[in-house]
Amino acid sequence: MSVHDEKLGLIAFARKLRQEATDAESYLWSILRGRRVRGRKFRRQHPVEPYVLDFFCAELNLCIELDGGQHNEARGHRKDAIREAFLRQKGIRTL
Fold first, then answer.
1. Partners of residue 62 on adjacent β-strands
2. What is residue 70's DSSP assignment?
3. Strand pairing partners for 53?
4. Which domains are seen in the chain, by residue range?
5. 27-72 pLDDT, tens per residue?
6. Is the alpha carbon torsion for 42, 45, 47, 95 positive or negative?
7. Which residues contact 76 (CB under 8 A, 6 or more apart)?
8. What pTM was computed for the model?
9. Alpha-carbon distances of 6 from 2, 3, 14, rounded to whole Å
C-alpha cells in the first residue's frame, strides 16, 4: 500500500467517523461549528496522520478529543499519551 493509498484510507475513515458521530460529538459540534466560538473555525474528524482528531482548530493549533470509556483503561492511557506526545511535537495542544 502506498503512502497515497494510506492517506486516502485515513480520509475515508474520517468521513465514516463524521457519519457515525456519538451523541457527545454531535452536541459539541453543534456548539463549535460555524465559527460560533469566538469566531474560530473548527474542523471535525480532522486527519493528522496517523490519527483522526475529533475537533481541530488550525488557528489555535488546538485539538479537542472526546474519548469513551475504553480510554479509562491502562491500554487507553498509554495510547492517549503516545498520541498527545506526537501532537505536541507538531505544536498541537490537546484538550
1. 57, 93
2. G
3. 46
4. 3-94 (3.40.960)
5. 999 999 999 999 999 999 999 999 999 999 999 999 999 976 555 6
6. positive
7. 67, 70
8. 0.81
9. 6, 5, 12
For residue 41, give the amino acid letter. Answer: K
Distance set, CA 31 to CA 60, 66, 93 (Å): 17, 14, 20
Copy the grid coordinates of residue 12. 475515508
Could you give the CA distance from residue 32 to residue 39 in angstroms, rounded to a whole number? 10
Tell me the three cell numbers of residue 55: 475537533
Give CA–CA dist 44/89, Å, rounded: 21
Residue 44's beta-bridge partner residues?
A: 55
Which residues fall within 8 angstroms of residue 5, CB to CB, at 6 or more apart?
Answer: none
CA atoms of 69 and 58, how far apart (whole Å): 27
